[in-house]
Design a protein that fits this description.
The chain is built from 16 helices and seven strands. By secondary structure, it is of the alpha/beta class.
């Protein structure tokens, strides 16, 4: 099986692909020991050609691929596209456009939430994919024939899946349901974590403005260090350590010796010196310069009975329309709706609002109830409880 290892051959394929209406794309990469993914193999296919590209070959330029991915006349088809696209954003600073993600499309076509590629291929084509090569070392050369066959199959089967899903979306009248998500996949900023926003990934909470400010700045320091040294965040510092610094405010080497998350002697390291500077400079700020800690809005608890009712509603609407619930609304969306009628969440916009959001607000304000009949859960207008409406919109 031939692998492209020179720029001229790659450019010829990309020129051919530029005349097609779509190209399927997949990658094999590794990132266990790095912050950025390491591209080990690139697979692409048009209707009539399929190729493997070895990006680890000396002097091979991926510029022809970048040019193809900039071509707005060619749809770039991926499955679970985000990690693949991240590679090309890091390579060129740009994301492929336009993009079609078969996992996103499948979720509104009745295939469930986040269906795996092999499961989708089996559902659509009846073919079974041998996944035993998936977790092999793709950086080691030479690649085996089994690895190459597996890699090529990922983009050749994807052609059939793409055709099936585009037809299904048209039949169901749901092409616009996935449009926003697909556009979002081509926004480069979605793939590069800005250090100043890194704290948003943290799960633990702090309650004091000073702790909040230190947490934000230490998270930004970790993100910059991880990006610049190309190592995973956790190898720079674990999340628990960030919160320990934010709560304990170590201002000297001895301060770090008292923290459980750091090894003995860390307080004398250069990293500790930088962190001490962050803590001391933040503590020197006037209170007015510290960020405000977000407070939960007053009102019903997001985890209380109203939220429970909305989750039942979501399940019923999803089942009635053959859509994965998470595509319509996430748990965070529901929590936000319970707290705020005007929450800036997708469930209160566009087709999701018509399908679910308006009903959710009616339930929240006591204008709609949920009942059951032989068909399942049905909405009941409170003004006439004796008569069920019988069906959800969709």
């Amino acid at each position: 099986m031939e692998i492209i290892k020179d720029t001229d051959t790659l450019a010829r394929f990309c020129r051919h692909a530029a005349t097609a209406d779509f190209v399927t794309v997949d990658t094999e990469f590794m990132r266990e020991t790095t912050y950025w993914p390491i591209l080990c193999l690139l697979q692409m296919a048009t209707r009539d050609q399929a190729v493997l590209v070895d990006p680890q070959t000396d002097n091979l330029s991926l510029d022809p691929v970048v040019e193809l991915f900039d071509n707005d006349d060619v749809v770039k088809v991926f499955h679970a596209a985000k990690q693949d696209i991240e590679i090309f954003v890091k390579l060129s600073g740009r994301a492929p456009t336009p993009v079609f993600d078969t996992q996103v499309a499948a979720s509104v076509c009745g295939f469930g939430d986040s269906i795996a590629y092999d499961g989708l291929v089996r559902e659509v084509t009846g073919e079974t994919i041998d996944k035993t090569s998936r977790f092999t070392d793709w950086s080691r050369r030479p690649l085996s024939e089994k690895q190459l066959e597996y890699a090529l199959g990922d983009v050749t089967h994807l052609r059939s899946v793409y055709h099936h899903l585009t037809q299904k979306l048209t039949e169901l009248g749901r092409t616009d349901w996935v449009a926003d998500e697909l556009r979002e996949l081509s926004v480069p900023d979605n793939y590069i974590v800005q250090p100043e926003h890194a704290w948003r990934r943290l799960k633990m909470k702090v309650n004091r403005p000073l702790d909040y400010a230190i947490m934000q700045k230490v998270a930004a320091w970790r993100e910059r260090r991880a990006q610049s040294t190309n190592v995973p965040r956790a190898r720079v510092m674990k999340d628990d350590a960030i919160f320990e610094i934010a709560l304990q405010h170590p201002r000297d080497a001895a301060g770090f010796e008292r923290l459980r998350s750091f090894s003995r002697g860390f307080g004398r390291s250069g990293s500790a010196g930088e962190l001490i500077e962050i803590v001391t400079s933040t503590m020197a700020l006037d209170k007015s310069a510290l960020p405000k800690v977000p407070r939960q809005p007053r009102g019903p608890s997001a985890k209380g009975p109203v939220g429970d009712l909305l989750r039942v509603l979501l399940k019923a609407v999803a089942e009635n329309n053959g859509v994965a619930p998470r595509v319509i609304a996430t748990s965070a969306d529901i929590d936000a709706i319970v707290l705020d009628d005007h929450a800036q969440v997708r469930a209160l916009a566009g087709w999701r609002r018509k399908l679910f959001g308006d009903l959710a607000l009616k339930i929240k304000h006591g204008r709609l109830a949920l009942g059951a009949n032989g068909e399942g859960i049905v909405p009941i207008e409170i003004e006439s409880l004796e008569t069920a409406t019988g069906a959800f919109p969709g």
